[in-house]
UniProtKB/TrEMBL annotation:
<dbReference type="GO" id="GO:0009051">
    <property type="term" value="P:pentose-phosphate shunt, oxidative branch"/>
</dbReference>
<keyword id="KW-0521">NADP</keyword>
<feature type="binding site">
    <location>
        <begin position="85"/>
        <end position="86"/>
    </location>
    <ligand>
        <name>NADP(+)</name>
    </ligand>
</feature>
<feature type="binding site">
    <location>
        <position position="46"/>
    </location>
    <ligand>
        <name>NADP(+)</name>
    </ligand>
</feature>
<comment type="function">
    <text>Catalyzes the oxidation of glucose 6-phosphate to 6-phosphogluconolactone.</text>
</comment>
<comment type="similarity">
    <text>Belongs to the glucose-6-phosphate dehydrogenase family.</text>
</comment>
<feature type="domain" description="Glucose-6-phosphate dehydrogenase C-terminal">
    <location>
        <begin position="190"/>
        <end position="486"/>
    </location>
</feature>
<feature type="binding site">
    <location>
        <position position="216"/>
    </location>
    <ligand>
        <name>substrate</name>
    </ligand>
</feature>
<feature type="binding site">
    <location>
        <position position="340"/>
    </location>
    <ligand>
        <name>substrate</name>
    </ligand>
</feature>
<feature type="domain" description="Glucose-6-phosphate dehydrogenase NAD-binding">
    <location>
        <begin position="9"/>
        <end position="187"/>
    </location>
</feature>
<dbReference type="InterPro" id="IPR022674">
    <property type="entry name" value="G6P_DH_NAD-bd"/>
</dbReference>
<dbReference type="InterPro" id="IPR001282">
    <property type="entry name" value="G6P_DH"/>
</dbReference>
<protein>
    <recommendedName>
        <fullName>Glucose-6-phosphate 1-dehydrogenase</fullName>
        <ecNumber>1.1.1.49</ecNumber>
    </recommendedName>
</protein>
<dbReference type="GO" id="GO:0050661">
    <property type="term" value="F:NADP binding"/>
</dbReference>
<dbReference type="InterPro" id="IPR036291">
    <property type="entry name" value="NAD(P)-bd_dom_sf"/>
</dbReference>
<keyword id="KW-0560">Oxidoreductase</keyword>
<dbReference type="GO" id="GO:0006006">
    <property type="term" value="P:glucose metabolic process"/>
</dbReference>
Length: 489
C-alpha cells in the first residue's frame, strides 16, 4: 500500500532538526493522508523529557501552520518520548518494549524507521546496539535514516559505514542529502531526459560551461562548533554540490530504478578529474567572510562568531572548476560556488550554450548573447530560457528574450519540503534520492585531496566581505577561461 504503517524512531528528538524539519514534515504527510492514521513517532534523546514535553514541542513546531485544533491534538497523541543513554543496554531494551507495545496498539506490522538526527559520533554505536539488542529483529522491515555529516573525510566515513553495515544492509540504509529532496533538483532529470530540445544538445559540442551556485545570506549561526571541524568544502561540496553535478552530467538511465539511476551518477563521480597538489590552487578557491552588510544589516566576520577560533582557517566559501573526463563532457568546465554570508540566498544552475559558428546579429553594443538555460532551485523554483530575438522596430538590433516558467505560478501550491518527500520515500522503500556508499566514497576522496592541500597552506582570511559574492579569485577562476558568473537575480 502507499500508506505504509510504520513507527518512526527519532534519535536526537530534542534537537533543532527534529523541531524545524522532521515534525512539520511528518505533519504534512499526515495531513495529506500519505501516512497511515495508525502510526507512532518515538522521540529518543538524553534529556529527561516526557510524552507531554515532546507533544508540546511538536505543537510549537507547527505554529503558523493552519490546522484544526482536534486534528492537531489527534496528531500529537501519536508522539512518545523515551529518555535514553546511548551506551546502556537496558535503554535499548526499554525502547524495544515501548516499540512493541505501540506496534500492537496501532497495528503496525513491525516496520521501524530509525532516524539518526543526533551528534554523529553516536551513529555507529546506536546502529550496532539496535541490532545486538534485538530492535531490528521484527516481523516487518527496518530502515536506518542517517543525517549528515557522514564522516569528515574518507577514512572516517569508511569507519562509520563499516560500523553501520554490521547492523544494516546497504539497501536498508538511507543516507540523507536533503538537496535530493528538493523539487527542482528532482526536476533536473526530467528537464534533461524528457525534452527533445535539450538532450541532443547536452554535451561538449553545444554546451560551453555549466555554473552551479548555492549562496546563503546566513552566517554560521549557532553551529560554530560543528562548522570549525567542517568548512564549506565538507559541508556543501562533498554532498550537495557534487550531487547536483552528477545529476547534470549523468547519462540517461536505462530504467527509472534506484540502481540504474545511481549507477549513472556514480559513473560521473568516477570520471571527475582529481584535483591534487599544485592544481588545487588553480582549480579551487576558498574564502572566509569578514564583517560587512547583508540585507541592510551589519554583521560580524566569521572569526568573531560564537565557538569559532579568532584565527580560524576554516573556509566559509568555495568555488571550483570541475572537469569530467568522458566523451560527453571532455573540455566543458563545471563551475561550482557556495558560501555563507553572501549577498543573496539562491541556488541556481546556469547552462551556457556555445555560440553559433557564424552569427551576424548583434545587440546595440555589438555583443552576442549566448543561450542560457537557468534552473532555479531556490528560493524561486522554475526554469528560464534565454534566447535572442529581434528588437521590435527598424533598427535591426537583437535583444535577449527570457522565457520564464515558475512553479509558484502554477496553482499556487507550496511544494513539499525536502524532508517530507525523503521521509515518504523511505517509508515506501525508495532509496533513489539518497546517497549510496559508492557516491560517498568517491566524493570524499575527491574533496579530501583538496582539503589536504589547503590544510598545509594557511589562507589569507578573511578575504570577502559579508554581503558580497565571495573573493575576487572566484571571478578570476572563470575569467581565465573567458567566462563570467551569470548574475543570480
Ligand atoms: C546543510 C549545511 O547541509 O545545508 C548547512 O550543513 C547549509 O550549513 C544548508 O546551511 C543549506 O541548505 P539549503 O536547503 O538552505 O540550501
Amino acid at each position: 500500500s502507499n500508506k505504509p504503517r510504520t513507527t518512526i524512531v527519532i534519535f536526537g528528538a530534542t534537537g533543532d532538526l527534529a523541531k524545524r524539519k522532521l515534525f512539520p514534515s511528518i505533519y504534512n504527510l499526515y495531513k495529506k493522508g500519505q501516512l497511515s492514521e495508525e502510526f507512532a513517532v518515538v522521540g529518543v534523546a538524553r534529556r529527561p523529557w516526557t510524552n507531554e514535553t515532546i507533544r508540546d514541542t511538536v505543537r510549537q513546531s507547527l505554529q503558523g501552520n493552519d490546522h484544526a485544533a482536534e486534528e492537531l491534538e489527534e496528531f500529537c497523541s501519536h508522539f512518545y518520548y523515551h529518555p535514553f543513554d546511548v551506551t546502556s543496554k537496558s535503554s535499548y531494551h526499554e525502547l524495544n518494549e515501548l516499540l512493541t507495545r505501540l506496534e500492537s496498539n496501532y497495528h503496525i506490522p513491525g516496520n521501524r524507521i530509525f532516524y539518526m538526527a543526533m551528534a554523529p559520533e553516536f551513529f555507529g554505536t546506536i546502529a550496532v546496539n539496535l541490532k545486538t539488542e534485538g530492535l531490528t529483529d521484527t516481523a516487518g522491515w527496518t530502515r536506518l535514516v542517517i543525517e549528515k555529516p557522514f564522516g569528515r573525510d574518507y577514512p572516517s566515513a569508511y569507519e562509520l559505514n563499516e560500523e553501520i553495515r554490521q547492523a544494516f544492509d546497504e539497501d536498508q540504509i538511507y543516507r540523507i542529502d536533503h538537496y535530493l529532496g528538493k523539487e527542482m533538483v528532482q526536476n533536473i532529470e526530467v528537464i534533461r531526459f524528457a525534452n527533445a530540445i535539450f538532450e541532443p544538445l547536452w554535451n561538449n559540442r553545444y554546451i560551453s560551461n555549466i555554473q552551479i551556485t548555492s549562496s546563503e545570506t546566513l552566517g554560521v549561526e549557532d553551529r560554530g562548533g560543528y562548522y570549525e571541524t567542517s568548512g564549506a568544502l565538507r559541508d556543501m561540496v562533498q554532498n550537495h554540490m557534487l550531487q547536483m553535478v552528477s545529476l547534470l552530467a549523468m547519462d540517461p538511465p536505462i530504467r527509472l530504478t534506484t540502481n540504474e539511476i545511481r549507477s549513472e551518477k556514480i559513473k560521473v563521480l568516477r570520471a571527475l578529474r582529481p584535483v591534487t597538489g599544485d592544481k588545487v590552487h588553480k582549480y579551487f578557491v576558498r574564502g572566509q567572510y569578514g564583517p560587512g552588510t547583508v540585507n541592510g544589516k551589519e554583521v560580524d566576520g566569521y572569526r568573531n562568531e560564537d565557538k569559532v577560533d579568532p584565527q580560524s582557517h576554516t573556509e566559509t566559501f568555495v568555488a571550483g572548476k570541475l572537469l569530467i573526463d568522458n566523451h560527453r563532457w571532455a573540455g566543458v568546465p563545471f563551475y561550482i560556488r557556495t558560501g555563507k554570508r553572501m549577498g543573496i540566498k539562491s541556488t541556481k544552475i546556469v547552462v551556457q550554450f556555445k555560440e553559433l559558428p557564424m552569427n551576424l546579429y548583434f545587440d546595440k553594443n555589438d555583443v552576442m548573447h549566448p543561450n542560457l538555460l537557468i534552473i532555479h532551485i531556490q528560493p524561486d523554483e522554475g526554469i528560464s530560457l534565454v534566447l535572442n530575438g529581434k528588437k521590435i522596430g527598424p533598427t535591426g538590433e537583437t535583444i535577449p528574450v527570457q522565457l520564464d516558467y515558475s512553479n509558484d505560478s502554477v496553482d499556487g501550491v507550496n511544494t513539499p519540503e525536502a524532508y517530507e518527500r525523503l521521509l515518504y520515500d523511505c517509508m515506501l522503500g525508495d532509496a533513489t534520492n539518497f546517497a549510496h556508499w559508492d557516491e560517498l566514497e568517491l566524493s570524499w576522496k575527491y574533496v579530501d585531496a583538496i582539503s589536504k592541500v589547503w590544510e598545509t597552506l594557511p589562507a589569507q582570511f578573511p578575504n570577502y566581505p559579508s554581503g558580497s559574492m565571495g573573493p575576487e579569485e572566484s571571478d578570476r577562476l572563470l575569467s581565465a577561461d573567458g567566462f563570467h558568473w551569470w548574475p543570480l537575480d
